[in-house]
């Protein structure tokens, strides 16, 4: 076990697995950033035939209540940090346990359509083995349980 810990610390020191924080996230003209051409990102604002597409989350309560519920759910998930909060927007960093990879996760509350648009993307690597999609689906299920 000690060898595993030493190897993990070594690799974390040698390789910065967190990547650089993107400076182009957020909502621009009602849209979240599109996904790169890698399978480690999901986005609810893409066409449903796009491999990166994920269903947006519907909401029925006032935006402020839905936002509060969502923040509560995410607060109970491990290794999360709220980076930015605006009226209709939340931006979190999720960090993996072992290698400390960072995923950028955004939520845009569209009051007109009563949809929470989501984007979840890995900063580094090519494949995420479906982690970003699973994360959003887990959050969706937990939000529906809260209603």
What is the gist of this entry?
The chain is α+β, with helices and mostly antiparallel strands and 147 residues long. The protein has helices at residues 2-14, 63-75, 131-146, and strands spanning 41-43, 57-58, 80-86, 89-95, 102-110, 115-122. The protein contains three helices and six strands; from the N terminus they run αββαββββα.
Enumerate how many helices there are, as a single number: 3
> How many β strands by DSSP?
6
Strand content: 15-25%
Low-confidence stretches: none
Name the helicity range.
25-40%
CATH architectural label: 2-Layer Sandwich
| Alpha-carbon distance between the two ends | 43 Å
Mean pLDDT figure: 90
Overall structural domain count:
1
Structural class: alpha+beta
Compressed to H and E, one letter per element, the order equals HEEHEEEEH
- CATH level-1 class: Alpha Beta
Largest sheet: 6 strands, antiparallel
Report on this model:
- With 147 residues, this protein is an alpha+beta fold.
- The chain has a single domain, classed as TATA-Binding Protein, CATH 3.30.310.
- Helices cover 29% and strands 24% of the residues.
- The chain has helices spanning 2-14, 63-75, 131-146, and strands at residues 41-43, 57-58, 80-86, 89-95, 102-110, 115-122.
- Strands 1, 2, 3, 4, 5 and 6 form a six-stranded antiparallel β-sheet that branches.
- Helix 2 packs across helix 3 (131-146).
- The model has no long low-confidence stretch (mean pLDDT 90).
